[in-house]
Amino acid sequence: MPQFKYIARSNFGKIVEGTIEAPVQRAALDKLRSQRMSVRSISEIKSSGEGIISRQKIFKRGIKSKDLVIFSRQLSTLVSAGVPIVQSLNTLCEQIDSPSFKKVITAIRLDIESGVAVADALKKHPEAFSELYVSMVRAGEAGGVLDTILDRLSNYLELAEELKGKVKGAMVYPLVIAIVASAITLFLLVGVIPTFKKIFSSFGQELPAPTQILINFSDFLRSHILVVIAIPIILVFAFRKYYRTSQGHFAVDKQLLKIPVLGDLIKKVAIAKFTRTLGTLIKSGVPIMQALETVAKTSGNKVIEGAIIKCRESIREGAKIADPLKKSGVFPTMVIQMISIGEESGNLEIMLTKIADFYDQEVDNSIKALTSLIEPIVICIMGVIVGTIVICMFLPIFEMSQLAGKEG
Q1: Whose CA is closest to 166, among 369, 392, 3?
Q2: Is residue 207 part of a domain?
Q3: Residue partners of 261: CB distance under 8 A and separation at least 6
Q4: What are the strands of the beta sheet with 38-45, ordered from one edge?
Q5: Are residues 297 and 322 both part of a single domain?
Q6: Can you tell me whether residue 140 is helix, strand or coil?
Q7: Cα(first)–Cα(last) distance of the chain, in Å?
Q8: How much is the pLDDT for 235?
Q9: Which residues 6+ apart lie within 8 Å of 7 measured at CB?
Q10: Which residues of 244-278 are buried (b: 16+ CB within 10 A; e: fewer)?
Q11: Beta 3-9 vs 15-21: how paired, if at all?
């Protein structure tokens, strides 16, 4: 059990220091207050090994989005049935398998029991509950419709998770094919060509230029195999470091949108996410300015995030949502027109939901187009590579056959 170091003033006015065991900091505070102590400071004691692991985020189990979706749906069902929020959390905590998620829910339950608002208790755990989640719960508490908000939130998370699964599935397929193709090519260059090299050396003749180039390349790979393996790893780490910078993140996201087929898919996913999130927040009673700020942070693309932030600034100055979105050049005309109609008719959240449903279907179509396009491209590339290797290896045999025919 975690230990906490504290400094407090006792009931007799004396300053005392010590340690106390408790599952979470809130429970430690409650224990000290029950002993009539006025706590001045309290912090968790971590061993040096735990500190290193925590800083490096090694072996640290995060909160899975699937666990959050299940939790939200179950909490929505219990609260809608009239079960008090604390009792609902206590019931769900017993069913959660993830130790890290169980610890988070336990801490939230203790906070709520001590009088903290539900949204404030959730906000303390950003690793599990996003700003969007907290904003919707806060709106539900303020309006006295927490059960309704939790139901909408559950529906939103389920649709978002479904969309995420589709995109991941589309990315996994080409990645697996690329890895298999690279492995086959590497095997041919490192494992098969050296065998042919031994056969050709027994001929005692000069090899054709393409064959010699391929053999030299194979020798280079065999003698520098560690360097060849290390280069992609270094490039990946360098790319990730560059992508973490604000400038790099924006530059990469901008170029991704320009890639044929893939860029179109990324834009459709972002639009579906933007419209569904904004529609859910507005329907839940979240103020438009706060809703746009939350949507911008969860857009997933820096270019689209920038467009939403500019839209928010324009609305603050009195403009409508559709006008700044149109100026950004990121959103299609149909999306702009439907948002404009929704604003004029007072049914913006309905229009946003319709746009999200439409683009969910468009994402499905784009994924099918992408996977059907990648397969023949990879097959053609593999055919060219393997065909080139085979031709280069058989060129000396063909030349020897021609020489033998002339001598005969």
Answers
A1: 369
A2: no
A3: 366, 369, 370, 373
A4: 15-21, 3-9, 38-45
A5: yes
A6: helix
A7: 89
A8: 93
A9: 15, 16, 17, 39, 40, 41, 42
A10: eeeeebbebbeebbeeeebebbbbbbbbbbbbbbb
A11: antiparallel
Same domain, 269 and 349: yes
Mark which of 109, 143, 159 sits at the end of a domain. 159
For residue 407, is it within any domain?
no
pLDDT digits (tens, 9 = 90+) for 238-258: 999 998 888 888 888 888 888
Q: What letter represents residue 123's amino acid?
A: K
H-state helical runs in 224-347: 225-244, 246-256, 262-283, 288-297, 302-316, 322-328, 333-345
- For residue 69, which amino acid is it? V
Which stretches of 57-189 are DSSP H helices? 65-80, 85-95, 99-113, 118-123, 131-143, 146-187
CB within 8 Å of 65: residues ≥ 6 apart: 157, 161, 164
Contacts of residue 35, defined as CB under 8 A and 6 or more positions apart, other chains included, come to none
User: Angle at which helices 131-143 and 146-187 pack, to 10 degrees?
Assistant: 170
Task: State which of 114, 130, 159 marks the end of a domain.
Answer: 159
- Domains of the chain: total: 3
Cα(172)–Cα(57) distance, integer angstroms: 25
145-163 pLDDT, tens digit each: 788 888 888 888 888 788 7
pLDDT at 234: 94
For residues 143 and 137, what is the distance between their CA atoms, to the nearest angstrom? 10
Handedness of CA 297, 298, 303, 306 (dihedral sign): negative
Q: Write down the pLDDT at residue 48.
A: 45
Letter string b/e over residues 12-36, b meaning 16 or more CB atoms within 10 A of that residue's CB: eeeeeeeebebebbbbbbeebeeee
Whether 33 and 99 map to the same domain: the answer is: no
pLDDT surpassing 90 at residue 174: no
Token pair recorded at residue 251: 């530059």
Residue 76 covered by a domain: yes
- Residue 348: count other Cβ atoms within 10 Å of its Cβ: 22
| Torsion angle of the four alpha carbons 251, 255, 256, 257, in this order, in degrees rounded to the nearest 10 | 110
Task: State which H helix or E strand residue 55 sits in.
Answer: helix 48-56
Report d(CA 384, CA 141) in Å as an integer.
62
The answer to whether 283 and 356 are in contact (CB under 8 A) is: no
